[in-house]
Design brief:
Structural class: mainly alpha
Radius of gyration: 33 Å
Low-confidence stretches: 1-17, 651-656
Shape: globular
Number of strands: 0
CATH class of the domain at 529-649: Mainly Alpha
CATH architecture of the domain at 529-649: Alpha Horseshoe
């Protein structure tokens, strides 16, 4: 053991010498005008990477690098100005310097510089670079983090994991996130190691094993991360993660976290001494008093309140002077606390927090900025950009003020942007004037700005003008003008306009009735998966004014709209099930199965806000058993709208072929994925054949509206001779299914 200690000391001493040599070498290069060395030294001093932290010196070297044109040094100095790290806080100067740095940092990122890729990722993630609407661009942030991670940047690997775990800028995927976390953790990044424990605590063994959770939690604690020290201590104290209960060792780790200022740990130590334990931690009211007095200073309201309650209890004990209220041991404890109280208060006042490098780093840089600071910086950046004359920023600032219920400021900035020709600002101005967003509705001003926007090709403005005309509020216009405005937008392929135009032509409300023309436009919109058009097409086929009623076609379109969450389509589909029209025939007596489906769709329509369904639902309630109604409501709770309308044509909607993705989408309640997964289990396609699982997924898909699932399920039961016990088991699983929203 002695030899090992000597060896450890020599290794540490040699490492220290190498670090000092590295620092001196960097200083020498930086002082001789090496710009890259100035930046590297600034980073080392800022993050305490191999050297003692010195924010003042870090700022000096970053400033030198910035003045000499190093874009990464500009970034660092700008961030230090924004946050007041090592220099006086100057948000305006910081944002200005950051804007100057971005083009060159972006160029470095394009050249696969991992540091630049990571920094651009953070700027995109925080919305501090110009993006559409000046909002965070998490897709770009995610791409940058992943590229930087592949090039060895451990911070980027951690952030790629964060975005993946939370489903920000990419599909939510905890397994992929864990791969990124492990990449960073295995390189010593403590926060990533700690997060792997969090993932295990939240999602269990399937994502991160207990063995890995323990290993990484201990690694993070040993690295000095206070949160990990607290949780590792708690695991020891409670015997979690397969550990033996060890109160003394638990207290040691929690003390380490408390010494770093972790308020939760400070309060927890107080609790441990307040109650004590028979074997490991002796009850000590004086120590409890000390730690509660520290915890009561916390910024956390809950911890502060709990600590104050304990201090009040201790003061109450001190105030009791009669010995008969206490046991012999309690009397000693109270007297000891009385005698030590002044010394304890002195000790509290002298108490100093000392964070480790790892814990302190979590509060530095844009990475460590709180949510409120990040939002404040975004707003400051938006204001500064708007004031510089950027018309898109003016629009975004106006939109922000409207969201904050400051209409006058909103109007001012929207007007400035619109006057510079920004179409979205013209649309917003027109909309607000018409709706009375700035006071009383002003159709004169509103239509003026909407017409300017429409002249620039804005389909939302054309639709708005059509609606105003239809309401008889268009200055110097008439209701029939709605057709003209809707036609302009419809010709551009806008599904909403096509639907509105089709309805006007089909009903002949303000123009000569044109059944075929109306059908044509509604069909165009329905073919784009626009759910209100699908509902409209269902009604047209049901009424049969052109070629007679076609309930099968009507039910088809109602189903498509209903599955997307369109209330009118859901009501219509409920009607078809009630009447047994256009849908697969039920084999159950008195169509109970149909009526349950009807009740489910009407429940969903009612939840979506459709009024006047009481008589239809009462009709069904009289014919259904309470158990059927309960089942229909439970099925409605499982419903997840499958929005297929995709005006931007960014994603092709269709079958999901990747098994892992299919499972995820099915568990989210997506009907197409559920039927795809059912087929896989029925056929053994990429999975072990499992008739029960196939039945479950077929049934869930059917309940979501996939009627073909009923036929396929029936065929599977017939072909494979599925037994009644298996079906009962499957039905139980269907009832307890809850979509992961």
């Amino acid at each position: 053991m002695y030899i090992f200690r000597i060896f450890f000391f020599l290794c540490f001493f040699c490492s220290l010498i190498r670090s000092e040599d590295k620092l001196r070498e960097l200083q020498k290069k930086a002082d001789n005008g090496d710009v890259q060395a100035a930046y590297d030294l600034a980073e080392a001093l800022y993050w305490a990477d191999g050297v003692e932290r010195d924010l003042g010196q870090a700022a000096d070297y970053a400033h030198v690098g910035a003045l000499k044109g190093n874009p990464l040094a500009k970034y660092r100095y700008a961030v230090m100005q924004l946050l007041g790290h090592g220099v006086n806080q100057d948000v305006k100067a910081g944002l200005k310097l950051l804007a100057e740095a971005v083009p060159a940092v972006e160029k470095l990122a394009e050249g696969d510089n991992p540091d630049a890729l990571f920094k651009m990722g953070k700027l995109y993630h925080m919305g501090l670079v110009k993006t559409p609407g000046f909002n965070p661009d998490n897709e770009k942030a995610n791409a940058n983090f992943r590229e930087a991670s592949a090039l060895g940047n451990v911070q980027a690997a951690y952030w790629a994991g964060e975005l993946s775990r939370k489903g920000i800028g990419a599909p939510q995927d905890s397994l992929k996130a864990s791969v990124f976390y492990k990449t960073a953790a295995d390189e010593g990044f403590a926060l990533a190691a700690f997060t792997l424990w969090i993932v295990h605590a939240v999602e269990g063994q399937k994502t991160v094993s207990q063995e890995d959770a323990l290993r990484y939690l201990k690694q993070a604690a040993e690295s000095g991360l206070k949160e990990a020290q607290r949780e590792f201590g708690k695991a020891l104290g409670e015997g979690k993660l397969g550990l033996e209960i060890d109160g003394k060792e638990a207290l040691r780790w929690i003390r380490r976290a408390a010494a770093q200022g972790d308020a939760s740990s400070q309060h927890l130590i107080g609790e441990m001494y307040f109650f004590g334990s028979e074997s490991e931690i002796k009850k000590d009211l004086a120590e409890a008093y000390f730690w509660f007095s520290i915890a009561v200073r916390s910024n956390n309201k809950k911890i502060r309140g709990a600590a104050k309650n304990r201090l009040d209890q201790l003061q109450e004990l001190i105030g009791k002077r009669q010995k008969q209220f206490f046991s012999e041991e309690e009397w000693k404890q109270v007297n000891s606390l009385k005698a030590k109280q002044l010394d304890l208060l002195k000790r509290v006042n002298e108490y100093k927090v000392e964070e480790t490098t790892v814990s302190a780093n979590n509060s530095l840089g844009l990475e460590g900025a709180s949510t409120s600071i990040q939002l404040s910086l975004r707003l400051d950046n938006l204001i500064m950009t708007a004031e510089s004359g950027d018309r898109e920023a003016m629009y975004s600032l106006g939109d922000f003020y409207l969201s904050q219920k400051e209409p006058k400021k909103g109007e001012t900035w929207l007007l400035k942007s619109a006057q510079k020709g920004f179409v979205s600002a013209m649309e917003a101005l027109g909309d607000q004037y018409i709706r009375g967003g700035f006071g009383e509705p002003d159709f004169e001003k509103g239509s003026k700005w909407l017409k300017k926007s429409a002249a620039e090709g804005s389909t939302p403005a054309m639709i708005a003008l059509g609606r105003v005309a239809l309401a008889g509020r268009l200055p110097k216009g008439k209701a029939a003008d709605a057709v003209k405005w809707f036609m302009q937008a419809a010709d551009k392929g806008d599904a909403e306009a096509q639907t509105l135009l089709g309805e006007l032509l089909y009903t002949g409300d303000v123009v000569k009735q044109d059944l075929k023309g109306g059908l044509k436009w509604i069909q165009k919109a329905a073919d784009q998966n626009y759910s209100p058009a699908q509902g409209g097409l269902a009604i047209i086929n049901m009424e049969g004014k052109l070629n007679g009623p076609n309930y099968k076609e009507a039910a088809k379109w109602a189903r498509l709209g209903a599955m997307q969450g369109d209330a009118r389509s859901q009501r219509l589909l409920g009607f078809f099930y009630t009447e047994g029209k256009g849908i697969l025939q039920s084999k159950l007596p008195k169509r109970i199965d149909h009526m349950r489906h009807a009740y489910r769709w009407l429940t969903l329509a009612q939840r979506a806000g459709l009024k006047g369904l009481e008589s239809e639902m009462n009709f069904l309630q009289k014919r259904l058993d309470p158990s059927d109604i309960k089942r229909a409501i439970a099925e409605a709770d499982q419903f997840v709208p499958n929005d297929r309308y995709n005006p931007d044509k960014k994603v092709v909607v269709g079958q999901v072929n990747d098994l892992e993705l299919t499972v995820k989408e099915a568990n989210k309640g997506k009907a197409q994925a559920q039927i795809d997964l059912a087929r896989r289990f029925a056929l053994g396609d990429g999975v072990e054949p499992d008739l029960i699982k196939a039945y479950v997924w077929y049934t869930l898909a059917l309940n979501q509206g996939k009627e073909e699932a009923l036929l396929e399920r029936s065929k599977m039961i017939k072909d494979h001779g599925m037994g009644i016990d298996e079906i009962i088991d499957a039905k139980k699983q269907v009832r307890v299914f809850k979509p992961k929203r």
